[in-house]
Amino acid sequence: MRSKEVLKQLSPYKQGKQTKDIQEEFGLDYIVKLASNENPYGFSDKVKEVFQINEPVFNIYPDGYTSELRYLISEKLNVRPESLIFGSGSEEIIQMLCRSYLTVGDQVIMATPTFPQYKHYALIEGAEIIEHPVNEDGSHPLDKMLDSVQDNTKIIWICTPNNPTGTALSKEELEDFLNKCPSDVLIALDEAYVEFLQPEKDLNALKLLDKYPNLIVLRTFSKAYGLAGLRIGYGIADPLIVETLDKVRGPFNTTSAAQQAAVIAFSDQDFIQHTYQKNKKVLKQFQSFLTSIGWDYYESEANFLLVKTPESGMDAFDYLIKHGFIVRPGELLGIPNTIRVTIGKEEDMKVLENVLRDYQEQLN
């Protein structure tokens, strides 16, 4: 049997080491996972309460239109119901975009490093990838990205705050980019970490959708909402884009449990505010600590920090994992000599600081 030739050049996604594996390998009881930018505070108690009371119904197919969640988000965000598309995480919508808009010979443009699935799914469809290294501060090189637009350019990916650097666009930068970009090029704006932005730095991207019908905004319930294990996200775009994506979307692609949990979680904005405030405080404390030991980092507007390490990121990763902390080495993210650290609970981050201080003393 023959698969697509391009698949021979690709590798399956490899998740990081799991807690149980590390417990067995190193004989550790205290393990903190800071590798996947999950919410260390869990998810809304209201979600927990509902699922404890109501028995789940697994024998009936879910609502293929995601009606309840659709109308809730439509009302709260002031967007049309037909402007919403739902996926098994926003990652599935990235896959839908590539399946819908890309064929062999088409071109996509993105920064590097950024979320790797943009490139992965585009390659599967036979697209040509144009990558531009991020600026020194970790931000998107928007002018260079615009300069590389050609007649066959179909999608430009913009991740803000960018994963893994954590840097975010300004409103002025985004609008200037949208004004200069050809209207037949789809702009995919990935806002997976939008809930962690300071209010004054929110792009208010949804207000731009009517003016720029080639824009799609992607969001997820996996990060701030703490529903990573249920896999549900959404996109907001012109109804014509949504109609196109719906043609490649599976008929029951989000589960009943995910839809129900997302409805409850989205309604509990107090939990989101709690998460935001906690993250803001602990992030600032961790940045101050890193400065105190002479380590640099990229300024972050998210729930993680890309830290520049004095030796390779893999060396720092190996040291930390032996002490019970799972982080993501930059060598696996396309930016060597760094580690990406999810901002965890304050008490866990204090322990991490002590481990890093010992590591730095050993290097000295």
UniProtKB/TrEMBL annotation:
Keywords: Amino-acid biosynthesis, Aminotransferase, Histidine biosynthesis, Pyridoxal phosphate, Transferase. InterPro entries: Aminotrans_II_pyridoxalP_BS (IPR001917), Aminotransferase_I/II_large (IPR004839), HisP_aminotrans (IPR005861), HistidinolP_aminotransfase (IPR050106), PyrdxlP-dep_Trfase (IPR015424), PyrdxlP-dep_Trfase_major (IPR015421), PyrdxlP-dep_Trfase_small (IPR015422). Transmembrane segments: none annotated. Signal peptide: none annotated. Residues 31-352 form the Aminotransferase class I/classII large domain. Its EC number is 2.6.1.9. It catalyses: L-histidinol phosphate + 2-oxoglutarate = 3-(imidazol-4-yl)-2-oxopropyl phosphate + L-glutamate. The keyword Amino-acid biosynthesis applies. The modification N6-(pyridoxal phosphate)lysine is found at residue 223. Its cofactor is pyridoxal 5'-phosphate. It holds the Pfam family Aminotran_1_2. GO terms for biological process: L-histidine biosynthetic process. Pathway: Amino-acid biosynthesis; L-histidine biosynthesis; L-histidine from 5-phospho-alpha-D-ribose 1-diphosphate: step 7/9. One of its GO terms (molecular function) is pyridoxal phosphate binding. SUPFAM superfamilies: PLP-dependent transferases. Homodimer. Belongs to the class-II pyridoxal-phosphate-dependent aminotransferase family. Histidinol-phosphate aminotransferase subfamily. This is Histidinol-phosphate aminotransferase. The lineage of its organism: Bacteria, Bacillati, Bacillota, Bacilli, Bacillales. The gene is hisC_2.
